Amino acid sequence: MQTAPTVMHQRNLFHLRRQFDAHRPDGFMPTENTDLESPHAAKLRNPDLTYLPEAVMEGEGNTAPADLALIAVEIVSSSNPEND
Fold it and tell me: CB–CB of 70/27 below 8 Å?
């Protein structure tokens, strides 16, 4: 079991997403729970916020190629910054 993000984490994510949404290019959509995979990383990463092409989000599963992400945002926790 993993603890849920704190309310401060969610608040910060809300404000960041609102700023990014104002400048989001057509054809990209935000996602807050998609694993990104890359041949350069040893394991999947699940950023707090990612903007991916809408076509990628039409598939099944929960994994997308990291190189297709317009941006990936991670709000780093003070308890685990090395992994975040």
Answer: no
- Tell me the two tokens of residue 76: 């780093």
Beta bridge partners of 63: 35
d(CA 38, CA 57) in angstroms, rounded, equals 17
Alpha carbon 12 to chain centroid distance? 14
CA angle 44, 58, 2 (to 5 degrees): 35
Predicted TM-score (pTM) of the model is 0.82
Question: For residues 74 and 47, is the Cβ–Cβ distance under 8 A?
Answer: yes
Q: Which residue has the tokens 């997403």?
A: 17
The residue to which tokens 């598939």 are assigned: 59
Measured CA to CA, the distance from residue 46 to residue 26 in angstroms comes to 23
DSSP three-state, residue 35: strand
| Token reading at 83 | 């992994």
Could you read off the pLDDT of 11-24 as tens digits, one per residue? 999 999 999 999 99
